[in-house]
């Protein structure tokens, strides 16, 4: 075998090994990938019970009901559709009605989303990109909503000064 042929065999072997390694990594990760869906998408597409996904939207006002043993039920909405959620555990401190939330879990046979993880927005301007995109797509996004007004300028002593 000539030097050129050995080099081509070596490069081909390395390429094949890398392709197999990449395939194994992707196959191993396929079980951990969780897709994001909005309540409107769930209403349009029938999701089989037991399929894990992330549900994102806003906590519907007046829907939070706290039960015994840290059980909480609430509804997630994107202002076009709503989906009831059941969760057992401690909710994040920033969880409240009208705020953005992402819950991870699976649908139950009765059409209720059983969440095992609930994430709440962490400040006044944050909303998960997927939630914002879903709200924009449904035409319910209000530009500038949720952004706090800028604080008035302050003097060195901490007093508010006129702008």
What would you say this structure looks like, in words?
With 163 residues, this protein is an alpha+beta fold. The protein has 3 helices and 7 strands; from the N terminus they run αβαββββββα. It has a domain at 35-137: Nucleic acid-binding proteins (OB fold (Dihydrolipoamide Acetyltransferase, E2P)). It is 26% helix and 26% strand. Strands 2-4-5-7-6 form a 5-stranded mixed beta barrel. The longest helix is centred in the first third of the chain and has 27 residues, at 3-29. It is elongated, with a radius of gyration of 24 Å. It starts with a helix and ends in a 26-residue tail after the last helix. Residues 146-153 have low confidence and may be disordered.
Give the CATH topology of the domain at 35-137: OB fold (Dihydrolipoamide Acetyltransferase, E2P)
Q: At the first level of CATH, what is the class of the domain at 35-137?
A: Mainly Beta
Number of helices: 3
**Main pleated sheet:** 5 strands, mixed, barrel
What is the topology, as strand order, of the major beta sheet? 2-4-5-7-6
Report Rg: 24 Å
How much helical structure, as a percent, in the residues?
Answer: 25-40%
N-to-C span: 82 Å
Helix and strand pattern: HEHEEEEEEH
Shape: elongated
CATH architecture of the domain at 35-137: Beta Barrel
Overall pLDDT score? 80
**Strand count:** 7
Which class best fits the helix and strand makeup? Answer: alpha+beta
Range of strand content: 25-35%
**CATH superfamily descriptor of the domain at 35-137:** Nucleic acid-binding proteins
Spans of 5+ residues with little confidence (pLDDT < 50)? 146-153
Function: Heme chaperone required for the biogenesis of c-type cytochromes. Transiently binds heme delivered by CcmC and transfers the heme to apo-cytochromes in a process facilitated by CcmF and CcmH.
GO molecular function: heme binding; metal ion binding
Protein name: Cytochrome c-type biogenesis protein CcmE
InterPro entries: CcmE, CcmE-like_sf, NA-bd_OB-fold
